[in-house]
Design a protein that fits this description.
The structure is a homodimer of 348-residue chains. Chain A is built from twelve helices and twelve strands. Chain A is an alpha/beta fold. Chain A folds into three domains: 52 residues, lambda repressor-like DNA-binding domains (434 Repressor (Amino-terminal Domain)), CATH 1.10.260.40; 128 residues, Rossmann fold (3-Layer(aba) Sandwich), CATH 3.40.50.2300; 139 residues, Rossmann fold. A six-stranded parallel sheet of chain A has the order 2-1-3-4-5-11, with helices on both faces. The first copy, chain A, has a six-stranded mixed sheet with strand order 7-6-8-9-10-12, with helices on both faces. In chain A, helix 1 packs across helix 2 and helix 8 crosses helix 9. The interface between A and B is large, with 60 and 60 residues. Chain A binds a DNA duplex (16 and 16 nucleotides) through helix 2 and helix 4.
DNA sequence: CTGAAAGCGCTAACAG
DNA sequence: CTGTTAGCGCTTTCAG
């Protein structure tokens, strides 16, 4: 950006026309004669003219940029969301700028401030712990949508989804998982928690309730996790090995896979000794050994929808209504029936 | 971005000073009296002034934005690179804008053009198939660095690394892997390829050469892969099962893990029947069953370095010299010695 | 220490 | 169909 760039005026001068004309010609304004339009196009090409989006943004007061803040690109599910978001954004003529919050509210706020300064046209947050009000205050008047928000208030039973949020039916997923486990003969079920965020409590509660409904009393054992469970699942595995539940409902796939690994160290065989169910259906869930039964969250759909809601908000000026997406139980080896001890079942 | 934003002049007017003064005060220009600086700060705060980075960019002709194009955020290694890149960029006061090329040259070029229009201060490409010359032409005069470039010319033995590129010593990694396999008694080694990109041929050649050096003749069996190997490793696994090599050197971890899974379907046990080695050391490599031996690429270092080279180029005006980073062999269960058939070895 | 004025590159009325 | 004229909001000489 140091040296001079070719400017609109440069090409105008070469052609002996006005800058306005060149501008219009380049953006295919219908009232420019095809003849000059062609001349302009050629001249621009030859001079190596690259339009300055910054100047354009300033003039039209819109940047064609969407900001996305995500806890962690490294997470497979988040990665899929980012990909879908970016894809859809590009298709609509937008560029996306990215910031990772790492689950730290301060960082997320900083990112939002940055986006506001950059005058992005819209922002989306994924798995944010921030509440919608705080977000709005930071980016006003830019529309914002929250995908799979994790603000704890969202977990309360009577929480109404704030407008402009994409949610996933975690509770239904957990209920399906519980029913499945009961069907394969695993009634002594334990929930293995993750960090203390909305989805964690929603999933735990849903599992507990489903179990209560089916069995008539509340006997969901719960192992509490924290932000560190994924990295150090050893101690958790030890506690689990000691209690020997018949099935584990894990907060997410990463945790489930880490546990699959840690449980091996304790001599427990899945699914023979106990069943394990994950959440998300990340790509590796289908490749673990044993392959992981899990509740699939529609990652691509979440990313795509976020962009579409933003576009809608941009068009209408109103924050779009909230949407909640369905999940799907994917049954694999890790929750094979209790009766037949299956170690490496043949696959079709 | 629809409604009016508070502007510099707005706060100037409220205070009865000039816009220039407010501008200087806000950026802590030393020649503004502490008194007015404080007044300005307070007024800006109260009015909810959010500086317009777009206008600023236009004025200073620098955007404080770095563009990053990456094949696929979904890939664990790329995710780690993005994270490190973004982290380092933010630390240096930059925002990053992202585009995924999906391995498609056309998309990558489009992304670069977009970045150029956006007047990013620097661009980094990861695993790009584009050659440095093309890239430079598209973003001139913006500095560009290429990380783990995959342009096929890079694979030729006498290819000099173009300036401004971050490379990884793939060949050394493969040699270490071969030596390791020979040491554990697996001499009939096969290389399982990925898509036809530079790193794939470099790795294959390095493995072949290492084997030749050690054994005195060229007997590296090679299974060719393509862009689809990861999704459909079945047929590949069948061919491998038929040939029964003693060890598999895989193009990358994703492929290795997919094969681990597919080989199970063919009744082959790793490492008893054959050893498997991956490349990259993605997080799941440590959690697969069996845990995967692999050559670790320093993802975080790659992302960090890319930013630093860009900063250097920005400061000096020169493209920084190329750097090549070391890799590290990580031995795990999947390549346990051939003699002792180890299925689930105890871990410390 | 602060104000005035010019300009970054582009768009958008408004004339003609 | 095209030229002219103002800005968009901020920085930055140059005066004072």
């Amino acid at each position: 950006m140091a040296e001079r760039h070719v400017t609109l005026r440069d090409v105008a001068q070469v052609l002996g026309v006005s800058a306005g004309t060149v501008s219009r010609a380049l953006r295919d304004d219908p009232r420019i004669s095809p003849a000059t339009r062609a001349r302009v196009a050629r001249a621009a090409e030859q001079l190596g003219y690259v339009p300055n989006a910054v100047a354009r943004s300033l003039a039209v007061r819109a940047s064609s940029i969407l900001g996305l803040v995500i806890p962690n690109v490294t997470d497979p599910l988040h990665g899929q969301i980012v990909t879908a978001f970016e894809q859809r954004a590009v298709a609509a003529g937008y560029t996306v700028i990215l910031a990772s919050g790492l689950g730290d509210p301060a960082r997320e706020q900083r990112a939002l401030r940055l986006f506001a300064a950059q005058r992005v046209d819209g922002v989306a947050l994924v798995g944010s712990i921030l509440d919608q009000r705080t977000v709005q205050a930071l980016v006003e008047p830019t529309p914002a949508v929250s995908v799979a928000g994790e603000h704890l208030a969202l977990a309360s039973p009577r929480a109404s989804s704030p407008r402009g949020s994409v949610r996933v039916d975690d509770a239904a997923g957990m209920q399906a998982a519980v029913r499945h486990l009961l069907a394969v003969g695993r009634a002594r079920i334990a929930y293995v928690g993750g960090p203390n965020v909305a989805s964690n409590v929603i999933r735990r509660e849903a599992a507990a309730q489903a179990l209560r409904q089916a069995l008539g009393d509340g006997r969901l054992r719960a192992f509490a996790g924290d932000w560190d469970v994924w990295r150090a699942p050893g101690p958790l595995a030890a506690r689990i090995a000691a209690e020997r539940p018949q099935a584990l409902l894990c907060f997410d796939d990463k945790l489930a896979i880490a546990l699959l690994d840690a449980l091996r160290d304790h001599g427990l065989q899945v699914p023979r000794d106990l069943a394990v169910v994950g959440f998300d259906d990340i790509p590796f869930a289908a490749l673990s050994n044993p392959r992981l039964t899990t509740v699939a969250r529609p990652a691509a759909e979440m990313g795509r929808l976020a962009v579409e809601m933003l576009l809608e908000a941009l068009a209408s000026g109103e924050p779009p209504p909230s949407r909640t997406l369905p999940v799907r139980l994917v049954v694999r080896e890790s929750s094979a029936p209790a009766a037949r001890a299956v170690d490496t079942p043949p696959r079709a």
